[in-house]
Every structure is written in C-alpha cells, then in structure tokens.
Give the backbone structure.
Amino acid sequence: MDNTFHTAFVSGASRGIGKAIAERLASSGINLFLTCHTKKEELDELSDNLHGKFGITALSVSADASSYPAMEDAVKKALDFFGSIDIVVNNAGISKNGLLTDMNESEWDQVIDTDLKSIYITTRLLAPGMVRRRKGRILNISSMWGEVGSSCEAAYSAAKGGVNALTRSLAKELAPENVAVNALSCGVIDTDMNRIYSEEERAALCSDIPAGRFAGPEEVAEAAYHIISMPSYLTGQVIRMDGGFI
C-alpha cells in the first residue's frame, strides 16, 4: 500500500464484504470513514473494535448511500474530521429477487439508486479532493451478474453492469490526475445477501462453481486490498473473482 494513503471511505461497512474490507484496511494502518444505512450499532461496534485492535482512527456515520444530501452531510463530517480521503471503496448494495414483471417501479429505483447512483454520489463528492492532491484510489464492488446477467435479478444485473461501465469511464477521466478506478466483480460470496438460498439451493449452486464453494468476505477483502495497493497504471479494470464460475 502507498504509504501516503492514510484514510479510506467504505460504504455498506456494517457487515459482509464492506466489514471485511474495513478490517483489512485497518490491519494495514489505514484510518477509516465508514457508512451504512440501517445498522448503526453494528457499525459503531466495528469502529470501536478496529480502533482497539489496530490503533487506527475510525469515524462511523449512518447515511443512505443513494441520497445525495445524506452523503454530502456525511462526507462533510469526514473531511472536517480527517482533512482528506485517499481511498474510496463503493460497496453499498442491495438486491431484489424475482421476475422483472413482478417488480414495481419503487423496487427498481431502490436497487439502481443504491447500487449505481451511490457511486456517482461518492465520486462526485470525494474525487475532487483526490484530483487536487493528484493521488487516490477508487474501487467499486461489482458482480459477475453485471457481466453476464442473472435470471430473476434483472435490476441488480443492470445496476452492476452500469457499475462496470462507469468504472471504465471514470478511469479515463481520472487517470491524468493519478487517480485509479477499478472494479472487483464478485461471484457467489457467503454473505447475508446470499443466505436467502436453502441448503439444497446452496449445494446446487456450489456444484456449478468450479472452485466448489462460495468465497468468504475476507477473501474479497484481500483481493480488494491488493487492487488498491497496485500502481495507478492499473486502472479501468473489472477484475472478476468468481471461482471460475463464468
């Protein structure tokens, strides 16, 4: 990790992949600005634990990642507190399972806004500081379904496909300023989002994965850490981590 990187923002950090990434960054001495929408107690507990274990400073703020005013207020608190943010990890995300024809407009908008619009918001708020300092890393947590689509997850697939395209576009905009933008396209990860499956469904899904298992959040976190640690010449990439599924 670049030793001039001192502070990272991680959205959706109260559990799962976001929590694991926060823990991995803290273990390398990176201070943290953490957000989530509804699980503030868990987020505060994580912040306290990481401070106690690694000696880093962590600021936890409850904010809806899909709301510009909410995130604008949260980012202001973070910049007042830390001065600058060097690393942005856009992890906040939700999914709605079911046929597209059974999904109402509100549900569609909620998925698109949380999974895709949220990246516009955080980039709009935090990239200017990176550009001024001519350093920074943005990592968007995506999904293999954004590359190939998933039946009964049309909104999620559309949002993650948008994340991948946005990643490539932003990389071209920000590369001249030494700010790298990449995405980590995840396969089936053992998080709450994938605990909707029955044991039989999990077994059937595992049988379709060449690696024969779901990945753990800590494995995604390790991959995320190494992508962030790479030289800024690695940019505009959607790096798939799916156990050979696709």
The two ends are 30 Å apart (CA to CA). DSSP finds eight helices and seven strands in the chain.
